[in-house]
Inverse folding.
């Protein structure tokens, strides 16, 4: 019987009289000639960023090169030159590539896939989401260092079809790999991930159904960030939450706070592709793509305008900035609003959050209703047994630097009265404005000329204040250090370790 080369959609098999041999769909294209076969599969843990999966390849040139390399590998490994080729019927694009690149074989389409395939582009989106949920789950469980997330996610992504098949058959999958960090340290991963993770279950269920609607797929994709570590920012009014979130991310992602007349919850989510999800009443979800953050801001301005028609209930911004992996930043409506639904939205945000920050305008600390606002915040985060980790952020440090000690002392007095368990390390006095400019200038995403024209930007050098045309590129580090935003960022990345130790 003539041997058969089989492309299943999740594996590449060679069948002969000795049995079935997995050749793997992976390839490495960094050598003099393309490498394929199990030697590449074995190197996956070491070089995940340099290895690709042929079933995810869209370029005909690369596909042709892979097929020719595969033919050479089969000739060397099995001494076989004459064999049939079978291609899964849901991979029709591969048929002309095979006939063109490795002619002379009897080639046909056949049904050999062991799972359903969603329509494009949904199938790729859902598989990517599945990879994300698995990787985030392992990071959130403490099994994998967050700094290794990119490598972890890439390896899971390359193997996602195998994990999906296990999940469909067993309701769980085991992730096995060895992750190598930048210093050469090896972390061995051998962890089970199961469908008790609801975000994972919703994605897998899409493949179990004979047919699914676009609305079902959209809902499952929208929920893929449910396993992220969630950090909520709340304030009575517009105290610069958007500037603060922009500063943490190092990009002008949000133009301004959502209008006070609305009760929109805004989630900013680290992701692998720029997407904007908008949730309306009755869980109707719409999705948009954006190439630039200016394009995103224009879209947000239209969606959140009180005069723009239907107002969303929730906005989810998926960004590819690379900062704060596995973390969602949530901008919630303020408490004590004249709008009745704001408190309800804020409490909903509290319930799903892991860490909550109350943003404070330093100029309001001495006002009569300030203590009441703090009391309402503390009462809210402890309601219904929530007992969330929390902290306080004093904003606009650049405007109040001369009164730094006085303001912190005043806040300490208020907190000691209302919150005996309060810790000083939970208070952050920051300048989101300086932090954002410092990061963007340091990383070359903002011109020095623009910084020099920016209102109120200065650097303190001993007793001198440097501003305007006197500012130089090297002052980026000074702006960032002055902003104290990195201390807040480290606290968030550490999952509120200080708060955890005190509880």
């Amino acid at each position: 019987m003539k041997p058969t080369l089989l492309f299943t959609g999740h594996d590449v098999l060679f069948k002969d009289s000795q049995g079935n041999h997995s050749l793997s769909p992976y390839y490495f294209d960094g050598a003099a000639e393309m490498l394929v076969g199990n030697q590449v599969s074995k190197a996956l843990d070491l070089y995940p960023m340099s290895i690709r999966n042929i079933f995810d390849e869209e370029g005909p040139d690369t596909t042709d090169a892979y097929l020719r390399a595969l033919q050479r590998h089969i000739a060397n490994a099995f001494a076989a030159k004459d064999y049939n080729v079978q291609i899964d019927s849901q991979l029709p694009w591969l048929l002309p590539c095979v006939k063109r690149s490795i002619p002379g074989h009897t080639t046909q389409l056949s049904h050999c896939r062991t799972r359903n395939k969603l329509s494009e582009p949904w199938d790729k989106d859902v598989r990517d989401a599945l990879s994300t949920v698995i990787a985030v789950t392992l990071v959130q469980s403490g099994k994998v260092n967050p700094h290794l997330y990119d490598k972890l996610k890439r390896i899971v992504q390359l193997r996602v079809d195998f994990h999906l098949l296990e999940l469909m058959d067993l309701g769980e999958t085991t992730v096995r790999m060895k992750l190598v960090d930048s210093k050469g340290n090896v972390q061995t991963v051998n962890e089970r991930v199961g469908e008790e993770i609801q975000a994972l279950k919703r994605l897998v269920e899409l493949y179990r159904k004979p047919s699914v609607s676009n609305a079902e797929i959209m809902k499952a994709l929208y929920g893929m960030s449910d396993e992220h570590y969630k950090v909520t920012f709340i304030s009575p009014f517009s105290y610069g939450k958007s500037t603060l979130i922009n500063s943490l991310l190092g990009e002008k992602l949000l133009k301004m706070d959502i209008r006070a007349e609305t009760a929109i919850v805004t989630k900013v989510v680290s992701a692998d592709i720029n997407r904007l999800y908008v949730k309306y009443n009755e869980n109707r979800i719409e999705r948009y793509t954006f190439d630039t953050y200016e394009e995103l801001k224009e879209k947000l301005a239209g969606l959140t305008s009180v005069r723009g028609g239907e107002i969303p209930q929730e906005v989810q911004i998926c960004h590819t900035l690379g900062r704060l992996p596995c973390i969602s930043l949530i901008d919630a409506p303020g408490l004590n609003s004249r709008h009745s639904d704001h408190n309800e939205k804020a409490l909903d945000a509290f319930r799903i959050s892991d860490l909550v920050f109350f943003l404070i305008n330093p100029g309001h600390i001495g006002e009569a209703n300030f203590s009441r606002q703090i009391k309402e915040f503390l009462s809210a985060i402890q309601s219904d047994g929530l007992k969330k980790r929390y902290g306080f952020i004093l904003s606009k440090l650049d405007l109040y630097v001369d009164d730094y000690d006085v303001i912190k002392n005043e806040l300490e007095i208020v907190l000691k009265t209302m919150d005996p368990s309060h810790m000083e390390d939970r208070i952050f006095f920051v300048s989101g404005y300086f932090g954002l400019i410092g990061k963007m200038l340091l990383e070359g995403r903002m011109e020095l000329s623009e910084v020099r024209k920016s209102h109120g930007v200065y650097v303190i050098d001993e007793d001198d204040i440097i501003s305007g045309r006197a500012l130089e590129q090297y002052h980026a580090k000074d702006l960032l250090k002055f902003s104290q935003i990195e201390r807040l960022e480290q606290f968030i990345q550490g999952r509120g370790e200080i708060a955890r130790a005190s509880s």
In short: The CA atoms of residues 332 and 349 lie 7 Å apart. The longest helix spans residues 60-78. The first strand starts at residue 4 and ends at 7.
